[in-house]
Amino acid sequence: MDAEAPLVCDTVRGCVNFKGRSVLRSKTGCWKSASFTIGVEMAERFAYYGISSNLVSYLTGPLGQSMAAAAASVNAWVGTSALTPLLGAFVANSFLGKYWTIIAASILYILGLGSLSVSAALTPSDSSTPTRIDVIFFFFALYLVAFAVGGHKPCLQAFGADQFDDENVKEARSKSSFFNWWSFCLCFSVVLSLLVLTYIQDNLSWVLGFGIPCIVMCFALSVFLFGIVTYRFRVKSDERNPFVQIARVFVRAVKNRHAVTNWRAAAAASEGVAIEEEGGHFRFVLGFLIELNGEEVCSMSDIEDAKAILKLLPICLACLPFTVVYQQSTTFFTKQGATMDRHITSNIQIPAAALQAFVPGSIILFVPFYEHVLIPIARAISHKPTGISLLQRIGTGLVLGIVCMVVAGFTERIRLEIALQHWLFDLPKETVPMSIWWLVPQYLVMGVAEVLTFVGLQEFFYDQVPGGLKSLGLAMSFSVVGIGGFLSSFLVSIVDKATGGRGQDSWLSDNLNRAHLDYFYWLLAGLNALSVVLYIYFAKSYVCSKRSIV
Questions:
Q1: Residue 154 · residue 93 · CB < 8 Å
Q2: DSSP letter string over 282-324?
Q3: Spans of all domains in the chain
Q4: Mean of per-residue pLDDT scores for the chain
Q5: pLDDT for residue 258
Q6: Helix crossing, 30-52 with 206-226: angle to 10°?
Q7: CB atoms within 10 A of CB 291
Q8: pLDDT tens digit string along 505-515?
């Protein structure tokens, strides 16, 4: 018995291996398993940014779209890619589980990337207009990738976080750093994608530019399968479908919305729980759903789970304007750069989309500084283990979003003045004698804002949702970006129509020398300033569901 005791103590409670047997802490999980998931996600981000970063160039080039239409198309696709994780989380939690959802998504990813390569090969490389079939097939392949992203994003990161045991102090501390280092490692593959793939796409071949990510994803799937012996698989403590149970709460609430007054009396009589204004946001009574006419309708745990989800919605709402700002780095920032002097030497010039590498580049520099300098200083001042709360971190990122748009607006104003000085108003294809490096500050600020806001949202949502809905929590954080993509697409269309027409160039004219991107950027800065005020109100009144990290 004494010889077996260490093995019992080494067992991780609530986890099994791929054979369904108990797992040992020393041989499974933690960084040894998480490293496989990080490696796979690095490959997925390499593939994703290989498409998204230069997509606006492909749409305005081989597919012949206008700048506003291309920007709207990119935003819609990015939005879809960020919303499909909700579907992926549902499939994972309800049917396949995280592991098999990741495998299915990887296969779908490979099919989508392969189809993009075929589409690029079929699309005319000269100036002739592509056929409708060519366009339809391209967008079919593109949205196939978007659905593949939906399986990867919520499941892979949640599966990686599952490799750390919350009941072990050392592993719990490691999991707190996992989200930061996850983002840090992904930036290397993003930078490689932005520098290598954009050059190949602009100077060699779009077929090769889409084909290389397909090969990389094939390799990533092999890597993920190779790590199976080290993985910990969480055992469900409740066989009920959490999605169905929470949906049931909301459906019952809607059906009985006309009986709120009677609910309160019945809830008091049946010792139900009413969800009152928590933080000033909600007055949504669900307690009566526990028992209706003597029949159990919704359990207390289901109501608490629904309550936790509802509480996150105001935070999502307040972050939406920032996600609109985030979309500009892959659309209008790139089109700005395309008009500027991009030469490194007299014979070599970089692709405009390559400057997007400064976003992950700033993250690579900022994360170690944040972990090893800012957080220790914050701990010394606040006397909190986390230094600053996640809500404070997210709020700081939102403020930097305003700074980014103000900087971008002034840079664009300078570019327009130089174009005017050199009589380039009606020569949109001529290079404005202004170095593309002027755009670097707005990319750097965007990178820092991204790691503060989006990584903070991911950890915050993962922590605050109930145990059976971790994938949904991450999917909700990604859906904020998705909704922002659609909002950006809608805003671009509205601004283009509202500021153009009657012989007047719109703010977003195809001829950027006659456009006013500076006005558009300052409009976004103003919208973000309003959202920060809203965010502060919601964050101050937020009541933490679990540990005091907010």
A1: no
A2: -----GGGGEETTEE-S-HHHHHHHHHHHHHHHHHHHHHHHHH
A3: 11-235+306-540, 242-298
A4: 78
A5: 57
A6: 170
A7: 17
A8: 788 887 888 88
Main-chain phi, psi angles of 106, to 5 degrees = -65, -40
Distance CA(59)–CA(70), nearest Å, equals: 6
What kind and span of H or E run contains 542? none
Q: Phi, psi (5° rounding) for residue 468?
A: -85, 5
For 32, other C-beta atoms within 10 Å of its C-beta total 14
Helix and strand tally (H, E) in the chain? Answer: 19, 7
Mean pLDDT, range 429-458, rounded to an integer = 87
- Classify 532 as helix, strand or coil: helix
SS3 of 490-526: the string is: HHHHHHHHHHCECCECCCCCCCCCCCCHHHHHHHHHH
Q: How many other C-beta atoms can be found within 10 angstroms of the C-beta atom of residue 373?
A: 10
> How many CB atoms are located within 10 Å of the residue 532 CB?
17
Q: How far is Cα 277 from Cα 279, in angstroms, rounded to an integer? A: 6
| Angle (nearest 5°) at CA 99 between 394 and 22 | 105
Determine the 3-state secondary structure of 162 from DSSP. Answer: coil
- 89 Cβ partners below 8 Å, 6+ apart? 154, 155, 469, 471, 472, 474, 475
At a CB cut-off of 8 Å and minimum separation 6, what does 349 contact? 342, 343
- H helix intervals, 193-285: 198-203, 206-226, 242-255, 260-269
For residue 429, give Cα distances in angstroms to 149, 202, 297, 509.
35, 16, 66, 13
Q: Indicate the pairing of strand 432-435 with strand 340-341.
A: parallel
Q: Is the distance from CB of 59 to CB of 65 less than 8 angstroms?
A: yes
What integer is the mean pLDDT of 140-158?
A: 87
Rg (CA), the chain: 25
For 377-416, the pLDDT digits (tens) are: 887 887 776 677 888 889 999 999 999 999 999 998 999 8
How deeply is 21 buried, as exposed, middle or buried, from its count of CB atoms within 10 A (0-12, 13-18, 19+)? exposed
- Residue 448 near residue 398, CB atoms below 8 Å: no
Q: Tell me the backbone φ, ψ of residue 203, rounded to 5 degrees.
A: -115, -20
Helix axes 517-540, 390-421, angle to 10 degrees: 170
| Dihedral angle sign, alpha carbons of residues 130, 134, 140, 143 | negative
The DSSP H or E segment spanning 404 is helix 390-421
Smallest CA-to-CA distance from 501 within 490, 492, 509, 513 is with 509
- Indicate if the pLDDT at residue 57 is higher than 60: yes
The CATH number of 11-235+306-540 is 1.20.1250.20
pTM tops 0.90, yes or no = no
- CA end-to-end span of the chain, whole Å? 45
Q: How far out from the chain centre does Cα 316 lie?
A: 12
Q: What tokens were used for 227?
A: 């790590």
Assigned token pair, 434:
């202004």
